[in-house]
Design brief:
This is Bulb-type lectin domain-containing protein. The protein has 319 residues and is mainly beta. The chain has one helix at 2-24; strands at 33-36, 51-54, 63-64, 67-73, 80-85, 95-99, 111-114, 120-123, 129-132, 140-145, 151-155, 160-163, 171-173, 177-179, 185-189, 197-205, 208-215, 218-225, 233-240, 250-257, 278-280, 285-291, 298-302, 308-312. It starts with a helix and ends in a 7-residue tail after the last strand.
Amino acid sequence: MASQLSSLFFQFIFISVFAFATTLAKVPANETFEFINEGEFGDRIIEYDASYRVIRNDVYTFYTYPFRLCFYNTTPDAYIFAMRAGIPNDESLMRWVWDANRNDPVHENATLKFGEDGNFVLADADGRVVWQTNTANKGVTGIRLLPNGNLVLFDKNGKFIWQSFDYPTDTLLVGQSVKINGRNKLVSRKSDMDGSDGPYSLILDHNGFIMYLNNLGQQLIYGGWPTKDFADIVTFAAEPEDVNKTNTPYELVLSLTHLQAQPSTSPAGNGRRLLQVRPIGGGSTINLNKVNYNGTYSFLRLGSDGNLRAFTYFPQRVT
């Protein structure tokens, strides 16, 4: 009995100390913010012919070349909190690569708030919470937009508590993945004007990495890699052809990761591939295309027409 009481006492002390430490880890007051969706629109020509507002304040610009956070709309008074990518003075290439709330747009005077508790919250003008990171009181001390386009909330040790890379919509940036044990799919937009979930999806599961068309509730396979135990994680990557050279072509690839040994599959039957691509690197990488310059600023998108396309920016065009 005494031993049980002692064990319970130490468990209580541990929980209390942990809770106290978490409570102490807060976002500094001068790094919190509340951005109101109001004011003038930007003047660049943007994908989907959208109107947009840049998100920035005295503390954060939320711009890390070539990525920037914005509110945008394709129909009046229906805004999506999103990330765009593009090269300055090359306006036709400004594209949207991540959306937070595309199925639930907000209105004028909606707020985007990062508070001392570490939660990042998008609320509509009436106060209704539309989207959040659910990171309140989890030790978050800061927020940052990284050079690879990953928006992260981190703790005092730099550990990511939340990251946008874990929540792809229709696009994968270089280094971003879909995972069987996590967000396992890309979903297309309905159209250029309607950013809500469309009928096409690219889903990773134990049956493969498969492209589906939702036809009146019936999932029809129309492409992809229907190979059993294809991978546990599929990552979009840009790999230099020669790591020892500065000006070297880059391969745009899908990198496949298995978290445990998988049984081999026959090249016939389930091993067939519906897209015309070639496996390289001993089958752990699938080549999509090659560009004759640094392909770091590239992304893979499932379009509203169901096509899977790779886009890339030519970095030397920066001014």
